[in-house]
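Morning run. Coffee first, then this:
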Amino acid sequence: MARQLPFGNFNFRVLVNNDEVIGGFSDVSGLNAEVNVAEYRAGNSAENHAMKIPGVHKFENVTLKRGIVDSASFWEWMTEVWNTGPLAKRDVRVEMLDEAHNGVQQWVLKGATPVKYTGPSLSGSGGTEVAMEEFSIAYDKLEFTQLAS
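And here it is:
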């Protein structure tokens, strides 16, 4: 039987190299892929129709936002990128979960590297605001897999 309700966008996890959870994120954005298309017209006859030919693929950086809990593993990865460059590339998996915490679909960022870190805004005024960190990740290729129907 087909599912009647859409999956909630609030139930997900992010893993590096398909096994290490790198944090509890409140937001993942930028799962976008774009293909530039060039138009090509063969010959010079009015009867020839234009063909659209896919060209360069473009992937937007993915941004991860979360409340600060423990970001040591992410910092270790970022330090490795600074020290070794492309040798530090990893695969990052963003997995959407159903209400029972079973994976239903996933996006794999192939050849990913952290490219930006934004620290929390710190204020001594007190209150109940959560300190938020933000990480941006660049990647070479995006793969999608449907895990459940």
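Strands lie at 12-16, 20-21, 25-29, 33-41, 50-59, 62-67, 90-97, 103-118, 132-138, 141-146. Good start to the day.
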